[in-house]
């Protein structure tokens, strides 16, 4: 564990708050680091390792604020690795609702290569979103709707099977 992360864990244990640090609040998408290399990710790992549930929740909250099309795959893998179930559920829902754009990112390629079970969970979430969209009268565009608009990243012809 890095000394800076250890210091933050001790600060949390003694003061029940996060350390005041610019690195802690800096979004990972604004720098070249992957989500797993950020200070918050390392702190999440320490929280999971030492059973600091409140610290884990606080780290999950900070990571939730950083979810974007470009970061969601990496944050999803991170959430899965550290058993951050709430963060994982939010990432799966976000990725399912923005699947076409997410599929075009480097993070999605990482999921395909290194986390095939997460990809399977994402497909189950997509299926759940499809049911949700069809049941609510089209609250927003479904994944099927995105593909039907010709946004298939592989330029394939897509037709719905009956």
UniProtKB/TrEMBL annotation:
SUPFAM superfamilies xrefs: POZ domain
Gene Ontology biological process terms, A to Z: protein ubiquitination
Domain BPM/SPOP BACK residues, every copy: 71-123
Pathway in which this enzyme or protein is active: Protein modification; protein ubiquitination
Signal peptide coordinates: none
Family per similarity comment: Belongs to the Tdpoz family.
Stored PANTHER family: BTB/POZ AND MATH DOMAIN-CONTAINING PROTEIN 1, BTB_POZ AND MATH DOMAIN-CONTAINING PROTEIN 4
Protein name: BPM/SPOP BACK domain-containing protein
């Amino acid at each position: 564990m890095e000394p800076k992360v250890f210091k933050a864990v001790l600060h949390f244990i003694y003061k029940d708050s996060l350390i005041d640090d610019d690195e802690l609040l800096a979004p990972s998408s604004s720098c070249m680091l992957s989500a797993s290399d950020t200070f918050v990710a390392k702190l999440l790992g320490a929280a999971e390792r030492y059973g600091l549930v409140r610290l884990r929740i606080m780290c999950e909250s900070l990571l939730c604020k950083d979810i974007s099309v470009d970061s969601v795959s990496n944050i999803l893998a991170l959430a899965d690795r550290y058993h951050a179930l709430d963060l994982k559920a939010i990432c799966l829902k976000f990725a399912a609702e923005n699947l076409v754009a997410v599929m075009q990112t480097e993070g999605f390629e990482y999921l395909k290569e290194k986390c095939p079970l997460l990809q399977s969970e994402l497909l189950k979430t997509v299926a759940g979103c499809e049911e949700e969209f069809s049941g609510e009268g089209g609250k927003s565009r479904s994944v099927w709707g995105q593909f039907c608009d010709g946004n298939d990243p592989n330029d394939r012809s897509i037709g719905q099977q009956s």
